[in-house]
Write a structure and sequence with these properties.
Helices cover 17% and strands 40% of the residues. With 78 residues, it is an alpha+beta fold.
């Protein structure tokens, strides 16, 4: 299975961030929040409004669809 975007991730599965394909200012802000390559992430819920709730480094974050559709992830094999 190749890389998918965070928006397309299945709920409650563990993934690893592979790349962030966003503008520099957004990318830097995500890094400040602890989201960078190699970070484990789990999608908890996906709202109709386009928001996605993810668990990242023990913290729940709400991210918009523009951001989550530009973060490539890879499933963690157990």
């Amino acid at each position: 299975m190749g890389n998918i975007t965070l928006w397309d991730a299945e709920l409650n599965k563990e993934y690893t961030v592979e790349s962030i394909l966003l503008e520099n200012n957004v990318s830097r802000r995500l890094e400040a929040l602890g989201i960078n390559e190699g970070t484990p992430v789990t999608v908890l819920t996906r709202k109709r409004s386009g928001a996605l709730i993810a668990k990242i480094r023990g913290t729940r974050l709400a991210l918009g669809r523009h951001i989550t559709s530009n973060i490539e992830i890879k499933e963690v094999k157990r």
